Amino acid sequence: MPQEKPLRATVEDARKAPLPPGRRSALLMQHGTMTLRWYAPRGTDPQTPHDQDEIYLVHKGRGYFRCGERRTEFGPGDVLFAAAGKTHRFEEFSADLELWVVFWGAKGGEAP
């Protein structure tokens, strides 16, 4: 019998989730094209563009989010969007930054 997919992800579970080799975020849920990950960069954010659209939900921390040429301040409770293929990163962020990350859709992102 296949294992049922989780209905819930907690911050506590996310903080303990293993980071797979070569990954900077932990996988918490997956269904179809959607994945939910936990991302807590320390020091700098070296990520590169992704092949799916993504939303970051800020759990903890403050700083600036750069997406392409645009830059915006963020804090707990904020939601940030990065389109597939767009260069983006977190800058000048606090040492306690913790984010939920949701990826979805086809490679290349959804049409504008």
- Radius of gyration computed on alpha carbons: 14 Å
Beta strand %: 35-45%
Structure classification? mainly beta
| Oligomeric organization of the protein chains | single chain
Q: Outline, from the CA principal axes? A: globular
Question: How would you explain this protein's 3D organization?
Answer:
The protein has 112 residues and is mostly beta strands. It has one domain (24-104): Jelly Rolls. The chain is 5% helix and 41% strand. The protein has one helix at residues 11-16; strands at 25-31, 34-39, 53-60, 63-67, 70-74, 79-82, 88-91, 98-104. The strands form 2 sheets. The protein has a 5-stranded antiparallel beta sheet. Strands 5-4-7 form a 3-stranded antiparallel beta sheet, with no helix packed on it. It starts with 10 loop residues before the first helix and ends in an 8-residue tail after the last strand. The mean pLDDT is 94.
